[in-house]
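In this section we walk through a basic example: taking a raw amino acid sequence and producing a predicted 3D structure, encoded as discrete structure tokens. The instruction is simple. Fold the sequence below.
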Amino acid sequence: MSKHLATVPMTIIPLVLYLVVAGIFGGVSEGHPEVWGRIAFSVTLLSGGVFTMANEHLILIVGLICLFFEIWKSTRQTSQEMVDQVFSMLVFIAYLVLFITVSRCSMAVFFLLMLISLIDVIAGFLVSLRTARRSLAVENNLGA
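The resulting token sequence is shown next.
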């Protein structure tokens, strides 16, 4: 079971989180769900400046953390690499379709999450290509 969970792209986590929050807190003012603009916390710094973090920033942080782990997963050399790439592409397509067709998803924060998903697809492909090229080079040197 855990082997199958490893093929699920982690970039789906912020997508599901976004859709759940947008579904539960459906109030939209001027195309911006009110829940995203709410301040999650604020801290007064030594300089006297106030650092504030809104909910939309928190979900972007979740997306970036998921991107990190997806890129890390793409460095594995397993037979599941192609399946991982296909699922990552499907998650990106889901982001794109939702962004274009659902009004609650037509926000900058959703666009940035979609961009994170696109970076996951491109980085995963490039890392897989690089590791395959290295594997081929190592095999050729050992076989000679």
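Looking at the output, two observations stand out. Residues 9 and 88 are 6 Å apart (CA to CA). The helical segments are 2-6, 12-24, 34-37, 55-73, 81-101, 108-143. In the next section we compare this with other chains.
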